[in-house]
Amino acid sequence: EDADAMVARPQWRLFRTDPARLVLPLIADPLYGFEAVNVEAQSTDAHSLLNWTRKMLALRGRHPAFGRGSLRFLSPENRKILAYLREYDGETLMCVANLSRLPQAVELDLSTFEGRVPIELTGMSPFPPIGQLTYLLTLPPYGFFWFQLEADADPPAWRTAPPEQLPDLVTMVIRRGLLDLVDEPAHARVLSNEILPAYLARRRWFGAKDQPLQAARLVSATPIPYADGVVLGELEAVLPDHTESYQLPLTVAWDDAQPSALTQQLALGRVRQGRRVGFLTDGFAVERMARGILRGLADRSRITGRTGTLEFLGTERLDRMQVTDHMPVHWLSAEQSNSSLIVGDTAMIKLIRHIFPGIHPEVEMTRFLTRAGYDHTAPLLGEIAHTDSSGRRSTLIIVQGAIRNQGDAWNWMLNNLRRAADELVLNDPAVEPGDDVFRALISFVAMVGLRLGELHVVLAGQNADEAFSPVVAGDGEVEAIKKAVAGEMAYAMSKLAEREENADPAVDLLGTPLLQRRTELVELAAKLAESARGALMTRTHGDFHLGQILVSEGDAVIIDFEGEPAKNLAERRAKTVPLRDVAGLLRSLSYLVATAQLENDAVTEHENEVRRDAIARFGRNAEEAFLGAYWQAVSTSKELAMPIDPRRRLLDAFLLEKAAYEIAYEARNRPKWLPIPLSGLTEILSRLTGGKA
Questions:
Q1: CA–CA distance from 601 to each of 157, 287, 644, 673 (Å)?
Q2: Are 221 and 179 in contact (CB under 8 A)?
């Protein structure tokens, strides 16, 4: 029979007509016509309706709670929002849909899930954790969210923790000013007994929370010039076997001046002076401290007090800059190991919280590199240092040039790698996926290798300054490297052995074979480190990974020459073989690849396999690009030249050392991340032992 007749619409009344006229013509629109909208075209378009539908169906199939879970409606006050929970076999899903043609906001009572992190399933994006307050969401017209409420997931890296609820604050009455806190015995006792112990316990920059605090006292308060009412305070924290010094600037945020949320969040107590009442708070939270620091550096201020001398050491580069009081102040971090802020697009001020006597490596390195003309790091603009009565010098504040950037290389590369891999797997399965989507990332990794190589060439040059004069590794230096590498491996194995048995099957699967070969691992690391004999030892970055690189208009800017925070200043300033930095970046790339493979938008097992293979291939290509650019950069330095075989063996020794460091770190701080460094160490061992791992 005629196929057209089978699909023809029935007539409304009896009359004779041409059957062809009863069939609607094919859509010929260039945007929605059959030539543009067809299965072949939509299969190769990552954002097509066909691929979106496939993805949503597969996503729904991976979570049985969508079909089998209990149904509980949340009934928000905004009736244009539909919100409900599906719960099944320990999994909780939350679906939120905007039924309106207009954007809508909604507040949901999720207090029973306090502490859980909503993971948006279509993009595997973590949202801020749920708290006691209502949870605010905004949705576009007819938009929706599918969330998985995870108890163990990490919150987003960009999240700013909400202000803590203010405790009951002690009020002190002062007559002359903040110097009374040191001069008046009654105030000193209140600070030591009632305020500082509880305050330090809440601060992330206080690094001795795992030890009993026996005493805490404010030992000095030095006014900052040009910063009215702000003093640099030094605290002593007395611990069972030693005393640590911390820096805490102090000021008063008066109630009649409408104190900011940050000043209240960082408040120690309340202060009354005459009729005025305010918060005694961290001086870092007020703009006048930042502006006073820059003016003090420009004027080369010098203040002598009871506990020593405070010096403002500005540089010529700062003198050439136009710094005004109208530049905005942007706080980067108040609750990290150090506190940082940016003034305009000109200067970054870093407040060193934990004070060590001695030369600070970041000041020393950035001053050297600035003078040497190395342009791919933040230049030094100034330093504030304190010298006590016995001549011991400590760096309190570092000021560097601000770098306009798109973020650190870790987050920038991770986001772009995930997006590129997710788009790649949606190509037609019959087409061999290419790696063009990774080209920009590979180019950036090569740029990192180039910049690191240029840095090492600068540091390898002959210099009259003994702190930067290279040395050749002899017997003593080789033994020190062997001890460090083997010691790190032994410590990592001991931390791995201390873990709870069967706490994580993946950890047991990877960790048990390594523990069985722990003696072999330690001996192998020490044997490979023998290749350091005769190698050039210079100053290095000391803690080099993707998080220490800023992405700035396609270029790589190396930052944070502070070294590993757990080491003392002498260890951080020590010379070593530059290949240690190379190993750090290679291990960081390995972490990047493993992390990118954890979460994905792939919807079938085939797509998962394609995605995993593509990311693994990216990792190999990125390592090759980084090393190629690095070797090319250091080839201009005769001092850094090494034969290929000992160079490879020494690099392997440092890779083992870095992987061991990662295992120990994750075992102490993030046990669920242990499979990543364990897999890395297993791969390195397998390569070095011919496949026996």
A1: 20, 44, 41, 21
A2: yes
CA atoms within 13 A on the CB side of 485: 31
Rounded distance, CA 535 to CA 543, Å? Answer: 20
**What confidence tier does 34 reach under pLDDT thresholds 50, 70, 90?**
confident
The pLDDT score that the predictor gives to residue 606 is: 54
Q: pLDDT at residue 30 above 90?
A: no
CATH code for residues 1-155: 2.60.40.1180
The fraction of the chain above a pLDDT of 70, given in percent, is 91
679/513 Cα distance (integer angstroms): 11
Contact 95, 146 (CB under 8 A): yes
- Please tell me the chain's helix, strand, coil percentages from 3-state DSSP, rounded to the nearest 5: 40, 20, 35
Element (H, E) at 172: strand 171-173
* Total H helices, total E strands in the chain: 21, 26
pLDDT above 90: percentage of residues in the chain? 67
Instruction: With beta carbons less than 8 A apart as the criterion, state whether 640 and 457 touch.
Output: yes
Please report where in the chains the tokens 């057209």 appear, as a residue: 4
**Exposed/middle/buried for residue 171 (C-beta within 10 Å: 0-12, 13-18, 19+):** exposed
Q: What is the pLDDT of residue 361?
A: 94
- Mean pLDDT on 27-42: 80
Nearest to 116 by CA among 140, 87, 139: 87
Q: Does domain 409-688 match CATH 3.90.1200.10?
A: yes
Q: What is the pTM of this model?
A: 0.81
Residue extents of the structural domains in the chain? 1-155, 171-401, 409-688
CB neighbours of 303 closer than 8 A, spacing ≥ 6?
Answer: 222, 223, 225, 309, 310
* Angle in degrees, 0-180, between the axes of helices 579-596 and 439-460, rounded to the nearest 10: 160
Measured distance CA(87)–CA(72) in Å, rounded: 8
**What's the Cα-to-Cα distance from 639 to each of 246, 441, 551, 577, 585, rounded to whole Å?**
41, 31, 30, 12, 22
Q: Quote the crossing angle between the two packed helices 505-516 and 475-497, to the nearest 10°.
A: 140
**Confidence bin at 163 (pLDDT 50/70/90):** low
Nearest by Cα to 338 from 348, 328, 329: 348
Residue 560 bridge partners (DSSP) = none
Whether 43 and 50 have beta carbons less than 8 Å apart is answered as: yes
φ, ψ dihedrals at 458, nearest 5°: -60, -45
Q: Is the pLDDT of residue 278 over 80?
A: yes
Q: pLDDT (tens digit, 9 = 90+) per residue, 601-640?
A: 444 555 678 888 889 999 999 999 999 999 999 999 999 9
Tokens 């530059």 sit on residue? 578
pLDDT at 17 over 60: no
More confident residue, 600 or 619: 619
Task: Compute the mean pLDDT over every residue in the chain, rounded to the nearest whole number.
Answer: 88
Question: How far is 460 from 469, CA to CA, in rounded Å?
Answer: 8
